[in-house]
Every structure is written in structure tokens, then in C-alpha cells.
Design brief:
With 123 residues, the chain is α+β, with helices and mostly antiparallel strands. Helix content is 49%, strand content 24%. It folds into two domains: 57 residues, OB fold (Dihydrolipoamide Acetyltransferase, E2P); 63 residues, no CATH class. The protein starts with a strand and ends with a helix.
């Protein structure tokens, strides 16, 4: 899996929503943390991060068997087809949306695995 490893370039804190901008190999990657989704302990640890803190993110998703390397890459391609490629033609938009709809069961499975992991960690 492509684990994000790098230095915090910026932090935007909106209370229950935090954005970490991580610099990795000259690229900036945005990480979004929502309090209602993230484990309480992890959310508290994030509060202690400052610019230039070193972080490693997403490793647990793979270790816990939530998403494999290949699945993660496939999901990123689908996401990028809508959020970064900005299709303009109706046919391109339709293809991108259909790719997402074909994966809806997989998305639900991922959400359930993450919810289960979070509830186990809270115990």
C-alpha cells in the first residue's frame, strides 16, 4: 500500500474536522480527519502535531485487512476520475459514476470494517 510518510506542511483545525497537509517526496497530500469517524485516541494525538511533525498515515488500513494495496490503488483511480480529472463530456461523467456504482458493495464493506475496527479500539 502507498503509505503516506512525510512532514506536516500545514494543519487546519475546525474542531471536529481536521485537515493535515503532508509533504511527501515534494508532493502535498491532504489528509482529512473527522471526529465521528476517527478513533478518539488518534484524534487527540493529532492535536499535538505541529508543522514539520513526521507522520505515517494509512498503514493500519492495510495491516487490519480493510483494503489491499491493489484495491486501494483501484479506488484512487476511480476517485481521481471525478475529483481530479474533471470530466466534461456527459459520456465521461457517466462512465466515472458507473465505475463508482459498480463498487458500492465494496464501499459498504470497507465502511463496516472501519466501523468495527473503531468500535473495537474504543473498548
Amino acid at each position: 500500500m502507498e503509505i503516506v510518510k512525510g512532514h506536516i506542511a500545514d494543519i487546519r483545525d475546525f474542531g471536529k474536522l481536521k485537515f493535515l497537509i503532508v509533504r511527501q517526496d515534494g508532493n502535498l497530500i491532504q489528509i482529512v480527519l473527522k471526529k465521528e469517524v476517527v478513533d478518539d485516541e488518534l484524534f487527540e494525538k493529532v492535536k499535538g502535531l505541529t508543522k514539520e511533525s513526521v507522520v505515517e498515515i494509512l498503514g493500519e488500513i492495510e495491516r487490519e485487512g480493510i483494503v489491499s494495496v491493489d484495491e486501494w490503488k483501484e479506488l484512487r483511480v476511480i476517485r481521481n476520475s471525478l475529483s481530479h480529472d474533471y470530466p466534461e463530456e456527459l459520456a465521461e461523467i457517466t462512465i466515472a459514476i458507473n465505475e463508482i456504482l459498480e463498487k458500492i458493495d465494496f464501499f459498504e464493506t470497507i465502511i463496516k470494517k472501519i466501523q468495527k475496527l473503531c468500535s473495537q479500539k474504543k473498548k
